[in-house]
Amino acid sequence: MSTLPFYREQAAACRSRAEASTLANVRTLNLEAAEAWEAMADRLTRTMVHRDANEAARAEADSSRDH
Question: Which domain of life is it from (predicted)?
């Protein structure tokens, strides 16, 4: 399983558990966990975007050097 979908699934599961909880502390715990999973997914998404941009720039630089 890819990491990004896993992070998103975990966040959704935590939100679902929070919504189903009747205990305030359990609800809070699950909402905080969901936020943490979402933050990890967001960081990974930004990393992937930057990696793709860097690879494209490197490829462009390499093709410019070859000409």
Answer: Bacteria
Residue 23 DSSP class: S
Name residue, tokens 């966990």: 33
Instruction: Tell the residue number behind the tokens 């093709």, with chain if given.
Output: 63
Tokens of 40: 């990890």
CA dist., res. 47 & res. 37, Å (int): 15
Give the HSE-up count for residue 30: Cα atoms under 13 Å, Cβ half-sphere. 17
How far apart are the C-alpha atoms of 62 and 53, rounded to whole Å? 14
Tell me: the pLDDT tens digits for 5-19?
999 999 999 999 999
The whole-angstrom separation of Cα 38 and Cα 5 is: 11
